[in-house]
Amino acid sequence: MNWEPVIGIEVHVELKTESKMFCGCRADFGAEPNTNVCPVCLALPGALPVPNEQAIEWIVEIGLALNCTIAEESIFHRKNYFYADLPKNYQISQFDTPVCSNGYLDVEMDGEFTRVAINRVHQEEDTGKSIHVGGGGRIHSAEATHIDFNRAGIPLVEVVTEPDIHSPAQARAYAQQLRSLIESLGVSDAKLEEGSIRFDANVSIRPEGAAELGAKVEIKNMNSFRSLERALDFEIERQTAAVKADQRIVQETRHWDEAAGVTQAMRSKEGSSDYRYFPEPDLVPIVVSDEWREEIRAMLPELPHQRQARYADFGVDAHAASVLVAGEMELSVLFEEAVALGADPKQAANWITGETTAYLRREDKTIKQTGLVAAHLVELAGMLSDGRLSSSAAKEVLAGVLEGEGTPEQVAEKRDLIQMSDTGAIEAAVDSVLEANQEALEKLRSGDMKPFGFLVGQVMRITAGKADPKVVNEILRNRATQ
Fold first, then answer.
1. Angstrom distance (rounded) from CA 309 to CA 300
2. Are residues 331 and 191 in the same domain?
3. How much is the pLDDT for 421?
4. How far is residue 218's CA from residue 425's CA, in Å, rounded to a whole number?
5. Are residues 99 and 248 in the same domain?
């Protein structure tokens, strides 16, 4: 029997508002522990919450970008559970009346689109941060756990899909493209390394073609796209092996151990009744009028799929346009700036999505951590078009620029990569090669072009690869007709 994975993704997005969701504390990342706190976010007696209007406006933006229905009225609830990083012993969240619902995101993968339905987009507050001390920073082996409440109360948006995803690769593509959309809106830093966007996944398996869902397992602690894909790969294999061995899949929450590459049981999976939801008595309903909704819609920037269509109009191929849009926003900015400075769009896109993207992944860097700026791409293109660089040398120069060795001109000179373009010098090199290979020359003159490639190679050898191959070819053909 073939088993089909069924996956739903919950994405938590920290909004980059200046203050927290229900108080005036700053929402800065990286402040000294427990310095951005007040009676409201520490849940001291008598402190009452006041909603952040900017956060509500931004969740409506997200909902509109995801083709959601925006509720005219929604309310906050108390989600009751005990954990050390939750000061109130409940989280202000939403339950059956979210701000946004019934949307979708069309996810591109290998040139094909799959529509992933969005069940809901709701507003809540973040928890504090647990810092595990000792034992490699892992909860199960830590000597102690410290709590930093700076993050408690930061506006958090949760985007919940329907179980429409059927492979780890598709889950990764969805997560990347959702992150790109969030970043385009400018409502969040969307930095995985800082925890401002985080993923939970619900996964089950069922016989291929069956309609009924299997027992659902939730996976937590996936802090990168790679982790998300690896964790789902492992969990699908684990569940499939268990079912084949006639073992029962338990509905539970599991922790992804990045170092070990396995999921580990944390606790049994809660249902909504376990959280004892009830309306938050200290907050009035959120009302989004038609006028306000349309004002927010009018402020929406160009979204990733619109940007990708525009790049296609530039002549950029579909794959390169997809990489530009799905990657860091910095890639699109670099491309746009290069084109504005006069770079050929197709060539600039290929350099950015090829050598540059490969370098960033290999070195785990962002564009801003390299020496590359848009003007360098224009300069590099000029050196290539005027014959001062070969295509292979241009790639080497680009690598040097990324490493911070200087401008393309400086790198090319430093690495001795500038092509010989002096026709006289190249003619002398060609004549020297022909003098030493008279038999090959005679064959050329008789119409036998087999030695041609050999002779080009000999010229490139004695010029240390610096001769412009186009010029070499032209001179050799002239000599063959003399």
1. 17
2. no
3. 62
4. 69
5. yes
Last residue of a domain, one of 295, 322, 356: 295
- Residues 314 and 194: their CA atoms lie apart, in Å, by 35
Q: Are residues 60 and 203 in the same domain?
A: yes
Same domain membership, residue 376 and residue 256: no
- Tell me the whole-structure pTM to 2 decimals: 0.83
Residue 326 has what DSSP assignment? H
For residue range 437-452, what is the model confidence (pLDDT) as tens digits?
Answer: 887 777 778 777 777 7
Which domain does 362 fall in, by range?
302-414
Domain count, the chain: 3
What is the number of H-type helices and E-type strands within the chain? 16, 16
Instruction: Report the 10 Å Cβ neighbour count for 185.
Output: 20
Token pair, residue 35, equals: 């310095």
Three-state SS string over the chain comes to CCEEEEEEEEEEEECCCCECCCCCCECCCCCCCCCCCCCCCCCCCCCCCCCCHHHHHHHHHHHHHCCCEECCEECCEEEECCCCCCCCCEEEECCCCCCEEEEEEEEEECCEEEEEEEEEEEEEECCCEEEEECHHHCHHHCCEEEEECCCCCCEEEEEEECCCECCHHHHHHHHHHHHHHHHHHCCCCCCHHHCCEEEEEEEEEEECCCCCCCCCEEEEEECCHHHHHHHHHHHHHHHHHHHHCCCCCCCEEEEEECCCCEEEEEEECCCHHHHCCEECCCCCCEECCHHHHHHHHHCCCCCHHHHHHHHHHCCCCHHHHHHHHHCCHHHHHHHHHHHHCCCCHHHHHHHHHHHHHHHHHHHCCCHHHCCCCHHHHHHHHHHHHCCCCCHHHHHHHHHHHHCCCCCHHHHHHHCCCCCECCHHHHHHHHHHHHHHCHHHHHHHHCCCCCCHHHHHHHHHHHCCCCECHHHHHHHHHHHHCC
Distance CA 269, CA 445 (A): 82
Same domain, 128 and 16: yes
- Are 35 and 168 within one domain? yes
End residue of a domain, out of 247, 272, 295: 295
Instruction: Enter the DSSP assignment of 19.
Output: B
Q: What is the pLDDT of residues 200-228, one digit of tens each?
A: 999 999 999 898 988 999 999 888 999 99
Quick: pLDDT tens for 350-400: 999 999 999 998 988 889 899 999 999 999 999 888 778 888 889 999 999
Q: Are residues 384 and 448 in the same domain?
A: no
Question: What whole-number distance in Å separates Cα of residue 13 and Cα of residue 200?
Answer: 12
Looking at the structure, tell me whether residues 224 and 328 fall in a common domain.
no
